[in-house]
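Handout, section B. The chain below has 446 residues.
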Amino acid sequence: MRDIAFVFLFAFLVIFAFKRSYISVSLWLWAGLFVPAYWLYSFAHSISFQTILVVITVIVYLFDRNKSKSGFNFLFFLVILIYMHFTLTTYYAIGPEEKVWLEWEKFSKIMLLTLFITLIIRKKVHFTYILMVFVLSLGIMGAIEGLKFIASGGSHHIKGPDNNILSDNNHFALALDMVLPLNVYLLAEYRNSKIRPFLLITLVLSILAVLGTASRGGFIGLVCVALYFLITTKRKTLTIIGFLIVAGLASLILTEKWYTRMDTIDTANEDGSFMIRVKSWKMYTLMAMERPVLGAGFRSVEVGYVWRSLIPNFYKLSFVESPEPTEKAWAAHSIYFQTLGDHGFVGLGLLVSILVTAFLTLMNIMRKVKDIERLQWQYQLAKMFKVSLVAFSVAGAALSLPYAEIFWALIAIIISLDISCRQSLAEIKKEETAKRKQQRIKRRHA
């Protein structure tokens, strides 16, 4: 029954997808984040809804007579560069060929989505649609998990959708952290709308879901988001009251086990799981030292024989305290060390460059539109994207998420926002020039 209902709903959405390219690309992203197969159990489970939306998006874009004005920036150039480098590292990878190329294929699909977002998303309505996608996918999943967490009295184990990069509780928590600021932006946009209660409930339940994952990285990301809002908001009293309400609700649900786990953040060097991370970081660094330009290739260090080949050189980083490596291979548990081991120092340099450039791009947008009334939505949007980037950059230091679709979609939207900002400013300048010209003509005839 659920499968039939979803197929009918999807058919309804497809009708809208054919109407506008920004709707189809938004639904493409939604299918990637919501993971329909996770919710379906019968015949619809095997249907690739995202592939259908990819095809529709390409068709609609190609035949769209009112395409958005093209435009690119330095951030887009860096994204192209990192994709080219990742392709090169895949070709020369030392891991299992089938595994590495499969990861490259997944990343290539994400890059295709990134490309179409940058080509299509330009207007305020476009950004609103695609931001709503985050809430109607990850936000809804967070709300559902938050409700389960409350109903279970704090015992429900929260994680993301199965067979997905966000299935891990830590990864899911970070993704929710990144969506929270986008939810706040939509709350401000729909201040007098009937959907505002839905957005508010989703926001609160998603915060509880982050806490319910018992993810220390997710908790650190949540603290980053909270501190940013507390420092930058003009409504500090209201913000503090909101924090206290959520904290009070959480204190009634969180168990002693949760508090004990969070306490280990202060004593990281005594925590076994953290020291395993340090061990992994050293192993991924060793791989980069051996292959500084290319690294090992997508997730190759996680392969047993590659991992074991690094053990004899472990002593080279003995000045950093950690347990001795065993023959069991581990993930990097860090966006930075994962990229370092997989793609060398060049890959890490490109990733850091993308993060820094994205942040500077947002700062530049805020500076340019700060005093322009009609572009205040761009200012607020850039502000929220900064928070999402900070959450990813800080919490991601302990999580293996450099290839997450949500991150690259965010980068693509930032590129689109920058292009939209430059085009809007050019239009305003053109209008002002025409207005001054008209005034001069009037003075001549006065």
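Note. DSSP finds 16 helices and no strands in the chain. Compare this with the example in section A.
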